[in-house]
Amino acid sequence: MLTARVLAFSLMTAAVAFAAPAQAGVLDNVQVKVGVSGILPEESADISVIGGDVDISDEYVPTLQLEYFFTKNISAELLCCVAQHDVGAVQTALGRVDLGQVTHFPPTVTLKYRWTDLGPVEPYVGAGVNYTHFFNKKLPAGGPVTSIDYDDSFGGALQVGADIRMNDHWSVNLDVRKIWINTDVTIYAGATRVDADVDINPVVATVGVGYRF
What we know:
CATH topology: Porin
Radius of gyration: 20 Å
Distance between the termini: 33 Å
Oligomer: single chain
Number of domains: 1
Number of strands: 15
Mean pLDDT: 90
CATH class: Mainly Beta
Largest sheet: 8 strands, antiparallel, barrel
Helix content: under 10%
Order of helices and strands: HEEEEEEEEEEEEEEE
Strand order of the largest sheet: 1-4-5-8-9-11-12-15
CATH architecture: Beta Barrel
Shape: elongated
Structural class: mainly beta
């Protein structure tokens, strides 16, 4: 439910901005970027009963960034994407345990400062907050795991990148974020319960194209 509200709010905000060009200066402060992001987890876990660690796959997904400029140097940016990862418990007392797949929606908002006196290259840094919702869990067929649940996460985010301006509107974007994501995972194998405290903490590297109105 919370995910639906966050997504609805993001879409409503974008729709209002695009539906009201007559209001002076609204779109002048907006930049939209589309690109491809590598979601590269730097994972670790504390697993009860069977011990071991966690292995989470790297994934490459399309992403959308919406940026609003308060001044020429200061802006706020929302990054949205959806990614599905393969997950396994490794080095456990049972060896590797396949935990199937899980999809996550991790909108991240950062407040950014950029340098605009270096010609067409505008480097920036940012810091903010991430919310991650986990859904669409797919268990491996025939495995010992009968159910799995991931708690949602709130955490910090840091960002560094650059917009390379092609003209007044178009740019190429290079961006790297470090996002802190932690989830409590509850796993059942029949009547046996296994709890895991999982740090995902991905690096998110993005290459994209931007358009500023």
